[in-house]
Amino acid sequence: MKVLITGANGFLGKNLVAHLAERKDVEIQKFIRNDSIESLKGLLSGVDFVFHLAGVNRPQSPTEFVSGNTTLTKSLCEAITATGRQIPVLYTSSIQADHDNPYGVSKKEAENALMEFALSNGSAVHVFRLPNVFGKWARPDYNSAVATFCHNIARGLPININDPEAPINLVYIDDVIDHFVSILDGKLEGKPSISIKPQYSITVGELAAQLESFRGSRQSLVIDAVGLGLTRALYSTYLSYLPPESFTYAVPKHDDERGVFVEMLKTKDSGQFSFFTAHPGVTRGGHYHHSKTEKFLVVKGSACFRFRHIVTDEFYELFTSGDEPVIVETVPGWTHDITNVGDDEMVVMLWANEIFNRERPDTYARLVGTGA
To answer: What is this structure's pTM?
Structure first.
């Protein structure tokens, strides 16, 4: 399948090109800002589908709205008609198309041109009226407030907020591209106007606070629930604006005669992740918990785990090593410790189901002893 993408170097275009380039069954033709309208006819040769993403939304002169949105769309329709084929077109319009402003009027006129083209040529036309789209590669101070905020906050620069209570409706770039590809593959019915789902609503103040919390998590080590929904999408977007020199950050290392202990990541509701080392012969632990639970994974070296029930005095001992990944769980009411029984340094990953609270540590010292 051969597709033409207008606006291929723009925010939407770059993301669509990246996704389609992963497929072996798609050949991509690109129409970019400096290409002449006359080149469209040649670019359409053998094309099976057109993604019309090109447009103008922040021109130096209002007249550019007409040339970049309406005129270009009409020229595309004429070029497709000249091929004598019914090539489907997906067009990215805007929710502003219902508004009486120069940008909205130009988008509405482009939509009307496409509807007339669909009737006269018989080509399928799919119109997406997009709200604010955010994600990687959007231009700061151009595409959206999300892009601007991410760029500035990631660099410690100030952001300007006129009304923190102002609402923003957002759609995420990956969801947009999924819809586009579904249209291309015939998995989504193309009505005259299509909405992206899910859509998210957030205030400008909430958006800024969320992005600031991502930056702050490098100091606190406490990360929000970034695996689902809007928070996941915003976190991925925020990270995409980090300059390369900020790809890394240091975390505190606690060093003593036993080895080192390093906390990596803390979550508000799913515990924290750490790792520690132990020199040969060193024993760590020697305590029990009433409610706290932990998971240990020896990734290097050899370990002996010992457990003793604090009421029945029952004793249990087991051995693991980095050669075979085995999770060892601590059980409430059992005191436990871990000893490096190898000749080299031992490295152990650790997850606890809660962030350590110094006021209520739920950690009580008691030696395990031996099984004798």
So the answer is: 0.92
